[in-house]
């Protein structure tokens, strides 16, 4: 059984050794395996990886963005969170409105060509300034389509009604904790073509036993080096705050992966990480005066005792 941070490292090592070389949407290439699971006991600390530094503030602001039902990166940029920039930026540079230098395959070219990277950074800074300061521009190019927050909070039905899945699942946990229907889905087949990136973490289910709330996530596509550490911490945090609202303790986070992969341009970074020793997970401190998940702000969360190894930089495949 893969458990804790060592389980994450063991799976990464397994993928490097046994993964199938595959082509992918980004034309980067991956080493891939299918169908694995990791488990994290949330009573043993908050599962923020220690073999490389993971920016907790970015995880919190992204999760709050999902919870708000927001799909525009303006909120993220206002909180100095740049993790979704590339997908919105692509919308702009692929549009008829864009008049700058050619940005084709900017994700790969910016890593390989110093001169191009300078042009790319210049255009990205222009883009970010426009998102932050031009409301019309932000509405047109900052929105990522009906991604996670939209599906969690405002799922549109065939009857033109909407379902607030997150609110409904909290109510169900409170009123019928033994139900087997504590499920939130981000995968809406009708909306997938209109999303900047179809949901990678597609469905999650809660489970109540012995006064504890556990969560299992099914993730169809799992970028082990960059994405998965964020996903682990994000859903662990979601479990903690929903448990808090429902008067429960946090139990386990169970992470089930479909296509678990390492990008070919992340191999050396993964090997560096595998050469490091794990350290104890930090503790999570939550502002207990907030009663509702929908009232939390960035300042309501604090890590105690986080002592990671240095961060390891790697390119994002867009």
Report the uncertain regions.
none
Structural class: alpha+beta
Radius of gyration: 20 Å
Looking at the structure, the CATH topology of the largest domain is Thymidylate Synthase, Chain A
Give the CATH level 1 class of the largest domain.
Answer: Alpha Beta
Under the CATH scheme, the architecture of the largest domain is 2-Layer Sandwich
Strand content: 15-25%
Largest sheet: 7 strands, mixed
Helix tally equals: 11
**What does the overall shape look like?**
globular
Q: CATH superfamily of the largest domain, called what?
A: Thymidylate synthase/dCMP hydroxymethylase domain
Order of helices and strands: EHEEHHHHHHHEEHEEEHEHEE
- Secondary structure tally: strands: 11
Oligomer: single chain
Please give the domain count: 2
EC number: 2.1.1.45
GO molecular function, one term: thymidylate synthase activity
Subunit structure: Homodimer.
Family: Belongs to the thymidylate synthase family. Bacterial-type ThyA subfamily.
Q: How would you describe the overall organization of this protein?
A:
Strands 1, 2, 3, 6, 7, 8 and 9 form a 7-stranded mixed sheet that branches. Strands 4-5 form a two-stranded antiparallel sheet. Helices cover 38% and strands 21% of the residues. The protein has 318 residues and is α+β, with helices and mostly antiparallel strands. Helix 2 crosses helix 10 (227-245) and helix 6 packs across helix 7. The longest helix has 20 residues, at 114-133. The chain has 11 helices and 11 strands.
